[in-house]
Specification:
Elements: H1 2-17, E1 22-23, E2 26-27, H2 28-31, E3 35-42, E4 50-55, E5 68-69, H3 81-90, E6 93-103, E7 106-115
Antiparallel strand pairs: 1-2, 1-5, 3-4, 3-7, 6-7
């Protein structure tokens, strides 16, 4: 009986940990609207380091880093934009559109994502 109770408890806990993406301690899966933007810029000369953040309509404060965290509070580090896109897809968001532009000689990537139903 204890094993069954533990199994049910574990399933309930793991289900609540799924689909939680935090941006500065805000769970965007609960707070954000229907759409978000995944924005990233390559900050390395050799193309291996990306600065990535999520725009969900929050107030932007000067010089504040909007780091993406998982359900355990661990800051997520992504190798590429597609790595970040896959992370958000796994957490309930789907790709809608893509755009890019050049700012100060660096390419900025912007992915529009929609909440998956």
């Amino acid at each position: 009986m204890k094993k069954v109770a533990f199994l049910i408890f574990f399933i309930l806990i793991s289900n609540t940990l799924f689909s939680q993406v935090f941006v500065n301690d805000v769970n965007i899966n609960e707070k954000a609207g229907e759409y978000i933007q995944l924005v990233g810029m390559n900050t390395s000369m050799f193309g291996s380091k990306y600065q990535i953040y999520v725009d969900y309509g929050q107030k932007v404060k000067f010089m504040k880093a909007y780091k993406i965290k998982d359900a355990s509070g661990k800051v997520m580090k992504f190798n590429t934009m597609i790595d970040a896109l896959n992370f958000l897809y796994d957490n309930g968001w789907e790709f809608v559109n893509y755009a890019s532009d050049v700012i100060a000689g660096k390419i900025r990537y912007v992915y529009l994502l929609k909440r998956r139903k």
